[in-house]
Amino acid sequence: MVTAAFVLDLSNSWLGGVNYYRNLLTVISRYASDDIRVKVFLPKGQDIDVFRDLSRTVEFVYISFPARWTFPWFVRKLWMKFFHEDRFLARLLRRHGVDVLSHAPDSVRCPGVENIAWIPDFQHKYLPEFFSQEERSFLDAKFERIAACMDKVILSSGAAKDDFIKYYPQYKEKARVLRFAPVLDFDLPKQVNAVEEKYGITGKYFFLPNQYWKHKNHKVVLKALHLLKEEGKFVRVVSTGNTSDYRAPAYFAEIEAFVEAHGLSDRYLILGMIPYADVQALAEGSLGYINPSFFEGWSTTVEEAKYRGKPILLSDLKVHREQAPSKGVFFNPIDAEDLAKKMWALWRQPTLHEDVDVLKRRNEAALQKFAQDYCDIVQTSR
Fold first, then answer.
1. Residue 83 has pLDDT above 90, yes or no
2. Fewest CB within 10 angstroms: 8, 32, 133, 140, which?
3. How do residues 330-350 score in pLDDT, each as one tens digit?
C-alpha cells in the first residue's frame, strides 16, 4: 500500500483543475483503493464541498503554512528559492506517513518522499502571443525546475510528452503519460428536460462548454453562425463556462458585441457559470459538442463526447487526433466557412442514440485504465 498526498488550494479559479482533481480522486477511490491510500492537504478554512462524497475513502488534512512576513515564512521561502526544497511541507508529509507527493504544488522537492509533478501542457510555447513576457519567463523557469528536481513528471498526453522531451531531453526518462478519463453520470436523461426548461432552451443545439479563455477560440463559432444565418440556415449553440480571461479582459465583451451586432442572440446562448450537474445534463441533451480551441493539453470535452456517444466538431490539433473520438469531425480552427459547412451537415443528420449499457461499459473500461495507469506511475520505482 502506497500513501499518496495531494496538496490543493481550492481558492484557485481554474475550474478545470478542480474538476480534474475531483475526477482523479474519484477514480483512485473507486478502482485503486487497495493499492493507494490518498491524503489531501488543504489550507485551513477551505470548504471541501466539491469532495464531500469522497470523505469516506480520502483523508482530508487541514494545514497552516507559516504566516506571511514572519521569520519562519522568510526561512521557508529562501530555502525554496536557493535549494529548491520545501522542508516544512516535507516534515508534514512524513509525519502523516506519506510515500509520494503527487501533482506537487510547487517546482521544488520535498525530501524524504517521492516527488511527482504534473505539467498539463506547453501552451505558452505554441501561443506566446496569449501570454505576457513575464508569464512566459515564469513558466519556462518553473518547468525547467520541475524537470530537474522531480522524480517523475506526469504529462496529460503523448503530444505533451513529446514536447517535454523536446524541451528537456536530458530528463526524458522522467516523463509519464496519464490520459484523463471522465466519470460520467448515465442517469442524466431523466434531468435533461428540466434543465433545458430552466434555461429556456427548446429544440436542438450544439454544446460549447469552454471557459472564455481567448485561446478557446469561441469567435470562429460565432463567425460560422453568422455565415449560416446569411445563408438562411438556423443553427443554435449553447455556451457555458467562466466568462473572464485575466490575460485578455476585453475578450468576453468582444464576444457579446459580436453576438449583438450580428443578431445572434437566438442562435448563441451564453449561460456562463452554472452548476456542474446542469452542465452535464445539457451535454447529454445536446446534438453534439463543439471544441474550437487553438490549443489543448488533453481535452475533457473530447473525452466526454467519446463516452457519451456524442458527435463532436473539433479543431484539427495533434492532441485531438490522439484522443481519436469515433464521432469526431475535424475542422480548421481559423476557417469559419469550414466549420459552418460541418455544423450544417451534422445539424441535418438524424439524431442517433447509442445503447446506454454499451456506453457505461466503455466508460468503465476507460476509468479502470486511468486508475491502472496512475497506479503504475505511483508504484513503480524510479
1. no
2. 133
3. 999 999 999 999 999 999 998
Edge-to-edge, what's the strand order for the sheet holding 100-101?
Answer: 58-63, 36-43, 2-7, 100-101, 114-119, 152-155, 175-177
Query: What structural domains does the chain harbor?
Result: 2-178+365-379 (3.40.50.2000), 189-351 (3.40.50.2000)
Looking at the DSSP bridge assignments, the partners of residue 101 are 5, 115
Is residue 382's pLDDT more than 50? no
| Percent of the chain predicted with pLDDT > 70 | 98
Helix, coil or strand: residue 159: helix
Alpha carbons 330 and 346: distance in angstroms, whole number: 12
Instruction: Report how far Cα 355 is from the mean position of its chain's Cα atoms.
Output: 27
Alpha helices in 86-176 (DSSP H): 87-95, 123-126, 133-149, 158-167
Alpha-carbon distance 87 to 111, whole Å?
Answer: 7
Q: The C-alpha cell of 244 is what?
A: 473572464
Q: Residues 310, 311, 313, CA angle at the centre, nearest 5°?
A: 135
CA dihedral for 94, 98, 103, 105, sign (positive or negative): negative
Q: Nearest Cα to 301, choosing from 322, 320, 278?
A: 320
Q: Where does residue 18 rank: exposed (0-12), middle (13-18), buried (19+ CB within 10 A)? A: middle
Q: What is the per-residue pLDDT for 272?
A: 95
Buried b or exposed e, range 266-277, using 16+ CB within 10 angstroms: ebbbbbeebeee
**Residue 217 CB partners (closer than 8 Å, separation 6+):** 292, 293, 294, 315, 333
Contacts of 237 (CB under 8 A, 6+ apart): 205, 206, 207, 208, 221, 225, 267, 268, 269, 290
Q: Assign 3-class secondary structure to 183-219.
A: CCCCCCHHHHHHHHHHCCCCCCCEEECCCCCHHHCHH
d(CA 374, CA 29): 12
pLDDT reported for residue 291: 98
Q: What are all long-range contacts of 131-138, with beta carbons under 8 Å and residues at least 24 apart? A: 131/247, 132/247, 135/247
